[in-house]
Amino acid sequence: MLEVPFPATHSPAKLWMLCESGLEAHDLLNWREIAFHGELIEALASVDDLAATFRFPVDTKGEAMRPPRFIDLEVPDRHVKALYWDVYGCTAAVEDEAERHRTESRRGDASLATRSCRQPQTTRSPRRARPSDRSAPLMS
């Protein structure tokens, strides 16, 4: 979809950087509309950039993983849900535009209009409302 190779990695920082380069290069999408989620990615990476601390009891060298002792999951949950719905909106916009392009190509009309990530024009299931509180701090 984004025409960016995604290597096998669980690093949220690396994956976010790849998404950024793919979205910035895509005519249809506006990276600035979702770039503010970088704060969430930075917070996740600062705790566990390999996304292994909470999945495995020991690392590849046999050392015990040391997850944070306490995490208020409600705060990151709100931010992760907001990220999810923004990405869903971008994905829906790209899928809709690709379908529109295929339809118009069959008709011979190659003109394509740009759509915003935040307002997908989809005929599939309606987009659910995102959490309204995106200003809550990630780390307290």
Report on this model:
- The chain is mainly α and 140 residues long.
- It has a domain at 12-107.
- The protein has three helices and no strands.
- The protein starts with 11 loop residues before the first helix and ends in a 33-residue tail after the last helix.
As an assembly, this protein is single chain
Distance between the ends: 36 Å
Helical content stands at 40-55%
Number of DSSP E strands: 0
Order of helices and strands: HHH
The assigned structural class equals: mainly alpha
Record keyword descriptors for this entry:
mainly alpha; 0% strand; 140 residues
Give the SSE layout.
Elements: H1 12-25, H2 38-48, H3 74-107
Provide a brief overview of the structure.
It is built from three helices and no strands.
